[in-house]
């Protein structure tokens, strides 16, 4: 059984057969997060890109849990420098882990990490196709709409798509509805909204518009679990 827990923003915990994969764990400094990073338990941390609202509490959580960070080569190298266990990959590449398969996809966005007034290069942003127990979950990361989502939808049978809808930094609602049409997932969960004033959009408007195109979307409350 695959369980997805929404931790707010772009953060999720995915649980499969006793393996816990934390994605984009931005908890400290996130006004919507309810999970205390000290209490986060995981075996892997998957990072879509290097922005601070995605790397979040990765270093502290990975150290505490002896977890392995999975990300692009540049982020993985930076994490190596922080003394973490890592598995580096890059866009278009897939790898079979003991728990299942991860493939990194393109995302149109940035990836720099700000630390002490410096912008650290963290490679190109990505999305991820995660296949566990025969179910495929697509975490789009932060991205604008791109036509290759149609190809991702053609080549993968996506059970759950996690798509940003907050506008300003990523797709807004109407572009995300078009993304759903391209990807054809069985279910879409909106992410990356409300955390900051500038991305304060109504996820129910997204759900209504997805349903109007005869697809399915569902808003998850922070802390809510979904069985895939
Ligand atoms: Ni970002
Ligand atoms: Mn972001």
| Tally of domains | 1
Share of helical residues: 10-25%
Query: What is the helix tally?
Result: 6
Low-confidence stretches: none
Name the bound molecules.
nickel (II) ion, manganese (II) ion
Cα end-to-end separation = 7 Å
* Count of distinct strands: 15
Proportion of beta-strand residues: 25-35%
Helix-strand topology string: EEEEHHEHEEEEEEEHEHEHE
Q: What's the CATH topology label?
A: Metallo-beta-lactamase, Chain A
CA radius of gyration is 16 Å
The CATH class designation is: Alpha Beta
Walk across the major sheet and give the strand order. Answer: 6-5-4-3-2-1-15
In short:
With 228 residues, the chain is of the alpha/beta class.
Q: How would you characterize the overall build of this protein?
A:
The chain has 228 residues and is of the alpha/beta class. It has a single domain (2-219), classed as Ribonuclease Z/Hydroxyacylglutathione hydrolase-like (Metallo-beta-lactamase, Chain A), CATH 3.60.15. Helices cover 21% and strands 31% of the residues. It has 6 helices and 15 strands. The protein has helices at 52-55, 58-65, 73-81, 149-155, 173-183, 203-212; strands spanning 2-6, 12-16, 19-23, 44-46, 68-72, 85-89, 94-97, 100-106, 113-115, 118-120, 126-132, 135-139, 160-164, 187-191, 225-227. The mean pLDDT is 98. It binds nickel (II) ion (NI) and manganese (II) ion (MN).
